[in-house]
């Protein structure tokens, strides 16, 4: 059984994530202990609320360093919702610009839609060969709750490096819904709240650990 640490930094749907990861077949520990977070087979980074508050909480438990060290060693990390957003360079909310973890270039900005937040079920456009979405259909819906997202994918890839697999969704315009980039995976939607479809995705991640 693979060991998954859920990073507890004061932001995130910890209880639902814990249940969902157990359902996916993982042995789960909720922790802010850097040693446990660094050595687990997989690290899950949840997140809800404001970007600035999430980054402050993350730094308070050395979460940015933990994520960076795991990725430098090729050890899997998965971000969910704001836990995905903080992986990018920066977020802008209410005119406040906050530096993120900088694992990917890009800016988290307010959605350009008539109705915000984007709350409810929506389909996604997953790329061919996605391991994350294996076993799901094109019309499968996932549960979103967010007002901000990355709306442009800015990472340039050299010819000899495998390009990340980027999944898109639409709400008043296209935005990044998920990314698979080597050991770093992330979703803007909540797989732990997406029923059987979300359970398939989390099991797919656990199976890679």
From TrEMBL:
Predominant place of localization: cytoplasm
Subcellular location: Cytoplasm
Keywords: Amino-acid biosynthesis, Cytoplasm, Glutamine amidotransferase, Histidine biosynthesis, Hydrolase, Lyase
Catalytic activities: 5-[(5-phospho-1-deoxy-D-ribulos-1-ylimino)methylamino]-1-(5-phospho-beta-D-ribosyl)imidazole-4-carboxamide + L-glutamine = D-erythro-1-(imidazol-4-yl)glycerol 3-phosphate + 5-amino-1-(5-phospho-beta-D-ribosyl)imidazole-4-carboxamide + L-glutamate + H(+); L-glutamine + H2O = L-glutamate + NH4(+)
Pathways per UniProt: Amino-acid biosynthesis; L-histidine biosynthesis; L-histidine from 5-phospho-alpha-D-ribose 1-diphosphate: step 5/9
Catalytic machinery residues: 81 (nucleophile), 190, 192
Enzyme Commission number, as recorded: 4.3.2.10, 3.5.1.2
PROSITE patterns cross-referenced by the UniProt entry: GATASE_TYPE_1
Residues of the Glutamine amidotransferase domain: 6-199
NCBIfam families in UniProt: IMP_synth_hisH
PANTHER family named among the record's database cross-references: IMIDAZOLE GLYCEROL PHOSPHATE SYNTHASE SUBUNIT HISH
Subunit structure: Heterodimer of HisH and HisF.
Functional description taken from the UniProt entry: IGPS catalyzes the conversion of PRFAR and glutamine to IGP, AICAR and glutamate. The HisH subunit catalyzes the hydrolysis of glutamine to glutamate and ammonia as part of the synthesis of IGP and AICAR. The resulting ammonia molecule is channeled to the active site of HisF.
Protein's name in the database: Imidazole glycerol phosphate synthase subunit HisH
């Amino acid at each position: 059984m693979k060991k998954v640490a859920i990073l507890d930094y004061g932001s995130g749907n910890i209880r639902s994530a814990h249940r969902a990861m157990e359902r996916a077949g993982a042995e789960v520990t909720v922790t802010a202990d850097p040693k446990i977070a660094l050595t687990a087979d997989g690290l899950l980074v949840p997140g809800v609320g404001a970007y600035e508050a999430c980054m402050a909480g993350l730094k308070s438990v050395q979460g940015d360093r933990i994520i960076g060290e795991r990725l430098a060693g090729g050890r899997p990390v998965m971000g969910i919702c704001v836990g995905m957003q903080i992986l990018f360079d920066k977020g802008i909310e209410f005119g406040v610009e906050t530096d993120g973890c900088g694992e990917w270039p890009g800016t988290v900005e307010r959605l350009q839609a008539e109705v915000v937040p984007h709350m409810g079920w929506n389909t996604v456009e997953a790329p061919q060969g996605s391991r994350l979405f294996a076993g799901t259909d094109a019309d499968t819906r996932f549960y979103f709750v967010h007002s901000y997202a990355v709306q442009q994918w800015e990472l340039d890839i050299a010819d000899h490096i495998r390009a990340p697999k980027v999944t898109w969704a639409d709400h008043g315009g296209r935005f990044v819904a998920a990314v698979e980039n080597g050991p770093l995976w992330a979703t803007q939607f909540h797989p732990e709240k997406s029923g059987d479809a979300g359970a398939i995705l989390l099991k797919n991640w656990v199976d890679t650990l």
